Each structure stands twice: as C-alpha cells, then as structure tokens.
Amino acid sequence: MIFIGQKLYNICQSRYLRCSRSGSIIIVALIEYLVFSRPVSKLECFSVLLMILSSYIGDTSDNIQLMGYIWTAINIVSTTTYVVSLRYVINNKKSLTAEAIFYPNLLAIPLIGLLSFSFEDHTYSNVNLFIFMSSICAFLTAFTTSLVLKHLSSTTFSMIGAFNKILMSFSGLIFLNENYNLLKVSSLLLGSLSTLIYIISIRRKKII
C-alpha cells in the first residue's frame, strides 16, 4: 500500500489520488455493511456519492497513462484490505495498539525494500535520507491509524483519508503550480462539502 501510493504520486496528478480513495471508500462501506452489520444512512450514502463525483469532475485536460489506472486499482484493493483487516484484528482479536503497529511494519520492511530496489533508481546519496524520513512517516501513519480504528468505523476512517487527499490537492494547486480552473476548484469544494455532510450524518447517529 505504501509503495503503490508512492508510485501514484509519481504517475498521477493529485485528483487521481482522490479517485483511488473514493473507490476504497465504496468498498470499505460495503464490506462494513455486509460483514460488520454497520448501518448506513441515506445521508452517508449521499456524502460518499458527492465525494466520488468530486473526484471525477476535475480538469478534463489531465492526462494519465494506462499504468496509472493499473496502480490506482491495485491501490484501492490494498488500501481496503489493510483498513478492514486492521479494524477486524483490533476489534475482534483485542490486539494492542503496539501489536497492530509492530507486525504490519515488520512484514512491510523486506517487501517494500524488494519492491523499491526492483522498480526504482536509487543512488547512495539519497537512499538513507528517504529511508529515515519514510520510516518516521510510516510509524506515525500506522500508530494514528490504529488509534482511529479503535474509536471510528472503517468508513469514517476512509472518509477522513479522502478529505486528506482534498487538502493535498489544494496544496498541489498552491505550492506545486498544478493547472487549475473553475471546474477543478469546484470539485475540491464539492469534496469538502461531502466531508462536512458525512460528519453531520455521523453526529446524528452518535457512533463516532
């Protein structure tokens, strides 16, 4: 999941990251409804639909290669599997937060290393720095994910991730000089509105 996310950053523009997140939201919500018997309100469904719509109405001039779609599909599957399985382990197996952090990262070290050196071009001048930085970020991601899934549903966690991608898209427009127009800005505002609607629906159900 970490490696594929990095590949998406290289291949796709920011809005395609939101497309992959929106796809994972749908699958996570469906799995929670079928497996965990979590009720889904109409307002939640409406907010998810708005998030999906916001992901697909960006700049039509954006180009993406076939490989980008392949990495996006793999990212959806891997992200959904990680979130749902982690929530199942935390809630049903009564695992500690430390265990939920330690074992996935322990297994990820050799796998990410193999994939990285197989698909990336590295030099000795930058490998150590990026390993150190990514290790800290991966630890913080795993730690906060475990804490969030202890108190929130997987669908809520996915919606938070989608809103994070919206903030990243805004950052791309401001700091990375990505192309922008009225349609792209409208899609980001629509995604922000969908997050607000989802928060309202969750507060009504009082299950946050």
From TrEMBL:
Gene Ontology CC terms: cytoplasmic vesicle membrane; endoplasmic reticulum membrane; Golgi membrane
Family recorded in the similarity comment: Belongs to the TPT transporter family. SLC35D subfamily.
Main localization (coarse): Golgi
Record protein name field: GDP-mannose transporter
Subunit annotation: Homooligomer.
Gene name of the record: GMT
SUPFAM superfamilies to which the protein is assigned, alphabetical: Multidrug resistance efflux transporter EmrE (SSF103481)
Keywords linked to the UniProt accession: Cytoplasmic vesicle, Endoplasmic reticulum, Golgi apparatus, Membrane, Sugar transport, Transmembrane, Transmembrane helix, Transport
Residue intervals passing through the bilayer: 69-90, 102-119, 131-149, 156-176, 182-202
Function comment: Involved in the import of GDP-mannose from the cytoplasm into the Golgi lumen.
InterPro entries, A to Z: EmrE-like, TPT_transporter
Localisation: Golgi apparatus membrane; Cytoplasmic vesicle membrane; Endoplasmic reticulum membrane; Membrane
Record membrane topology: Multi-pass membrane protein
